[in-house]
C-alpha cells in the first residue's frame, strides 16, 4: 500500500516531466498562444473564449480545474492547491465581468501562475509554502477586519437611530 506522498511506478522526475508537458500545453494554449506583434505580450485562448458569455468562462474554468487536478495527483501541499484554486476562482470571478474580465485575463494568467506553483512544489514536496500560508492568513485577517468594521458601523447606526427616536 502506498503512503501519502510516496511515488509509485515511474520515478518522480519522469512523472513530473510528463505532467509538466501536459500542463504546459494547456497553459500555452490558454495563456500564451500568440505574441502580439511589436510587444512582449502573449495572448492565449482564455481571453478570446472568455468573450463568449458564460460558456467561454466555463470552458476556461474546466481547463484550469484539470490543471489543478493534475497537480493534486502529485501530492502537492494542500495550501499550494488552495492557492491554485484561488487563482482559478479569481480568474473565473473577474473573468465573468464583460470586457473588464477579458482584459484581466490578458494579464493575470491563472494557468501560468498555477504551472509555476506546480513546478516549484512537484519535484520538491518539502519546498517552502510560507508565501501561500501568508496569503491565506492575510485573507483571513482581512475578512475578520471587514466583519469587525461592518458590525461596528451597524452597531453605531443602530445606536444613532435609537437615540434619535421621540
Structure description:
There is one protein chain. By secondary structure, this protein is mostly helical. It is 70% helix and 2% strand. It contains seven helices and two strands, in the order H-E-E-H-H-H-H-H-H. It has helices at residues 12-31, 45-49, 55-72, 78-95, 100-108, 110-122, 130-163; strands at residues 34-35, 42-43. A two-stranded antiparallel sheet has the order 1-2. A hairpin with a 6-residue loop joins strand 1 and strand 2 (42-43). Helix 4 runs antiparallel to helix 5. The protein starts with 11 loop residues before the first helix and ends with a helix. The relative contact order is 0.12.
Overall pLDDT score: 84
Please state roughly what percent of the residues sit in beta strands, choosing from under 5%, 5-15%, 15-25%, 25-35%, 35-45% or over 45%. under 5%
Largest sheet: 2 strands, antiparallel
- SS-derived structural category: mainly alpha
Q: What is the strand arrangement across the widest sheet?
A: 1-2
Gyration radius from CA atoms, angstroms: 21 Å
What does the secondary structure layout of this molecule look like, with pairings?
Blueprint: H1 12-31, E1 34-35, E2 42-43, H2 45-49, H3 55-72, H4 78-95, H5 100-108, H6 110-122, H7 130-163
Antiparallel strand pairs: 1-2
What's this entry about, in short?
This protein is mostly helical and 166 residues long. The protein contains 7 helices and 2 strands; from the N terminus they run αββαααααα.
